[in-house]
């Protein structure tokens, strides 16, 4: 009996999450068709990045919802998940939204602020907590709808990784396991795995743990206080240090001659502020 209940719960969860994914599978875009993503590699200190999110949401009056759930705290105050930062920078309509309970996340009452939101920001912590709370619920669907109507979805650290289709470092045991017990993110960008804190934490080789088992994915690893801004197939580095691209190729503004060229299964390269990348062609835009 128990196994039947578990099975049907799983099947229902699969059906619920299949909806939006199937609708979107014919899209010619790897990123969102409408709206913009701001994907930050952790330790987001740069006001210019938060300001960019406010601008993309439509200015100071635009309703912004921040989601602190990844943090795992018992309680959150009104400033959680950068809500205080957005207000300090002039945003006038910022709401902190949180539950750990997917049944609550599936209610209209809980999800209501997302109906009119023009911006969403996911704070840091452990990305699997966002999956456990929101995957397959009305709340997750409304995150996608913020993009559909031209808004901005953003996040830092765990709030960066959750935006990929493959969930990097999704294990509940610790944050060192790249292919963990949670492997599906919210998929605002398809066919990618997104890592964060990459250079500061010496994580530049970790992406290969994922690409060895999922070679079809594009790897994107973002350093701290650095943003990747994505719409349709276009990605652009904004501020900070570097974003590392793992697409099996090598690129450098100095030309493509690398003195010690590793084989294509262990190669990556760096993009910086202003550099642009085509997520569909998987090549740098020069
Ligand atoms: C915030 O935005 C919501 C949705 O547009 C609106 O109902 C509410 O009145 C706004 N609150 C403030 C303080 O502007
Ligand atoms: C994107 O916006 C256009 C124009 O408003 C709309 O027709 C289209 O359905 C939107 N796409 C998605 C995926 O919602």
| CATH H-level superfamily | Class I glutamine amidotransferase (GATase) domain
The CATH architecture classification is: 3-Layer(aba) Sandwich
Taking strands numbered 1, 2, ... along the chain, how are they ordered across the largest sheet?
3-2-4-5-1-9-10-13-14
Give the class from helix and strand content and strand pairing. Answer: alpha/beta
- Write down the CATH topology: Rossmann fold
Low-confidence stretches: 1-23
**Basic shape:** globular
Beta-strand residue fraction? 15-25%
Largest sheet: 9 strands, mixed
Q: Give the N-terminus to C-terminus distance in angstroms.
A: 59 Å
Helix percentage: 25-40%
Ligands, deduplicated:
2-acetamido-2-deoxy-beta-D-glucopyranose
Tally of individual helices = 9
Q: How many strand segments?
A: 14
Compute the CA-based radius of gyration: 18 Å
What is the residue-averaged pLDDT? 91
The CATH class turns out to be Alpha Beta
């Amino acid at each position: 009996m128990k196994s039947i209940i578990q099975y049907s719960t799983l099947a229902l969860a699969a059906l619920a999450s299949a909806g939006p994914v199937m609708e979107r599978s014919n899209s010619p875009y790897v990123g969102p068709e409408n709206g913009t993503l701001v994907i930050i590699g952790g330790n987001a200190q740069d006001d210019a990045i938060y300001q960019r999110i406010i601008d993309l949401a439509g200015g100071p009056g635009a309703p912004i919802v921040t989601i602190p759930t990844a943090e795992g705290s018992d309680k959150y105050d009104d400033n959680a998940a950068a809500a205080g930062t957005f207000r300090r920078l002039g945003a006038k309509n910022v709401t902190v939204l949180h539950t750990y309970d997917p049944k609550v996340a599936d209610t209209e009452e809980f999800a209501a602020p997302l109906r009119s939101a023009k911006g969403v920001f996911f704070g840091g912590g452990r990305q699997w907590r966002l999956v456990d709370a929101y995957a397959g619920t009305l709340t997750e669907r409304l995150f996608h709808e913020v993009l559909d109507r031209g808004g901005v979805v953003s996040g830092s650290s765990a709030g960066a990784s959750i935006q990929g289709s493959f969930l990097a470092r999704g294990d509940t045991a610790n944050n060192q396991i790249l292919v963990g017990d949670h492997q599906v993110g919210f998929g605002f960008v398809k066919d990618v795995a997104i890592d964060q804190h990459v250079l500061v934490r010496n994580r530049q080789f970790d992406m290969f743990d994922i690409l060895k088992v999922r070679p079809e994915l594009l790897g994107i690893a973002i350093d701290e206080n650095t943003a990747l801004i994505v719409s349709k197939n276009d990605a652009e580095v904004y501020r900070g240090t570097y974003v590392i691209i793992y697409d099996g190729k090598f690129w450098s503004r100095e030309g493509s001659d690398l003195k010690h060229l590793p084989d294509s299964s262990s190669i990556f390269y760096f993009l910086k502020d202003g550099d642009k990348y085509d997520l569909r062609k998987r090549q740098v835009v020069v």
